[in-house]
Design a protein that fits this description.
This protein has 14 helices and 12 strands. It is α+β, with helices and mostly antiparallel strands and 419 residues long. The protein is globular. The C terminus is likely disordered.
Length: 419
């Protein structure tokens, strides 16, 4: 490889790079997760990696990306979607573009901070569009990067990208002795009463037993239909997990993954996929049996059990992926913003896209998000150029988030409908 440049490499070449073994080591979804996603999540995705070399020609950072056909109307309001559907009767691929997405196909994106510095990032910002054109992609998107990267990623704005908010994650301070203490100290009297009524409804039913597994393979045929039930009920559908992905998580990442399983009468009625990082406990995905889930309020039941377990094991933050914001608002969660950085490979079309993007942002049409105290953080201006926050450790970011939450106040998908 020539020195001081950005190259596109495939998985076979990536596996021979010494740097790849430690890439994303500080994140819960480290390089093992990227390999698992490539092996098990297809959906028309073509996976590749940017390898960034230093002055000696050695690879110092790797930034994964994938290519897909992206529907720009997927997350918009019903009026815009109806207009788009009318246009697509004449032009079927209207606002459906071959897209190069930098980040992870499953979950939020991160920078490979084990070797990347700001100069490397500047070169990546300058080189991505060139590689996108070579790969016949018309759109480039940095997919769902947490807000603490805003200072570092300002260099992408200088290269014509536009930042818009994606559906945020949420974060809940669980630094309490017990779930009861959390309810008494953090929640309103009305919310406490509502939760206790929900828990009593479950207590009156046949007993529900909880177990925690490191590997879900033995019960995958029972839990996977529950995941699909939640997935298909959601108004917004993103990546679709596979049985192979769920089984691979426990086998490949036993240090970072736990599966919570709830049974009633020996039958599995709910499960969650959880991950851990520093003092953060992430609820990634959920599966529920309907209509029992609505009758017994299994969503809240599951949250209580997961938070209780996390408290007992020393975790301070309960993090959840996007959607299903109403119960999270009442539980006193705060928003954990995620950003999209978007650019068309044509300068002319990019000028048009910059004006259209604010209206295409899905979060604009979610009224519940506006109720959160830190809603403005989703749209806030980027932080100071050169901000070193992008390379902070997970523990430092957690401490900063805790302070911010105190002033302002990881997927549980859209599982409850209108409950």
């Amino acid at each position: 490889m020539a020195p001081d440049t950005v190259h596109v490499v495939a998985r076979e070449e990536l596996s021979r790079l010494r740097h790849w073994r430690e890439a994303f080591a500080d994140e819960r979804k480290d390089r093992r997760h990227f390999e698992l996603v490539e092996d098990t999540i297809h959906q028309g995705f073509a996976y590749r990696y940017f390898a960034i070399t230093d002055e000696q020609g050695d690879v110092c950072a790797v930034q994964p990306f994938f290519i897909l056909d992206q529907d720009l109307l997927a997350g918009t309001g019903p009026g815009i979607r109806a207009l788009g559907a009318a246009v697509r009767r004449i032009c079927p691929r209207f606002l459906t573009l071959r897209t190069l997405m930098v980040g992870c196909a499953v979950g939020e994106g991160h920078l490979d901070t084990t070797g990347m510095n700001q100069a490397h990032l500047e070169r990546l910002a300058a080189g991505v569009v060139k590689h996108a054109r070579a790969l016949r992609a018309r759109l480039v998107v940095l997919k769902e990067f947490p807000a603490h990267y805003r200072g570092a990623l300002e260099c992408f704005l200088a290269h014509g990208y536009t930042r818009v908010p994606s559906f945020p994650m949420t974060r809940l301070n669980i630094d309490y002795p017990s779930f009861e203490d959390y309810m008494v100290q953090a929640l309103s009297r009305r919310t406490r009463r509502d939760l206790r009524l929900k828990f009593k409804a479950a207590a009156r039913a046949q007993p529900i037993d909880q177990s925690i597994l490191g590997d879900i393979t033995s019960v995958i045929d029972e839990v996977y239909p529950l995941y699909l039930d939640v997935y298909h009920r959601s108004k917004h559908q993103f990546e679709k997990l596979t049985k192979e992905y769920l089984c691979g998580l426990g086998r490949l990442m036993p240090d970072k993954v736990r599966f919570f399983v709830w049974r009633q009468g020996g039958r599995i009625v709910a499960f969650t996929v959880c991950m851990m990082q520093s003092d953060n406990f992430y609820a990634e995905y959920i599966g529920l049996e309907y209509p029992l889930a609505l009758e017994l309020h299994l969503y809240h039941y599951a949250v209580r059990d997961m938070v209780t377990w996390a408290m007992r094991h020393g975790y301070k933050w309960f993090c959840s992926s996007g959607l299903n914001y109403d119960p999270k608002f009442h539980l006193r969660c705060t928003l954990d913003p995620l950003d999209l950085y978007v650019r068309h490979t044509s300068w002319l079309m990019n000028a048009v896209l910059k004006r259209a993007l604010p209206w295409l942002a899905p979060v604009r049409y979610d009224e519940t998000l506006r109720r959160f105290a830190n809603y403005a953080d989703m749209w806030a201006s980027p932080s100071i150029p050169g901000d070193a926050g992008w390379c902070e450790s997970a523990g430092t970011r957690s401490a900063k988030s805790k302070n911010a939450a105190a002033v302002g106040q990881p997927a549980l998908a859209e599982a409850l409908g209108n409950e």
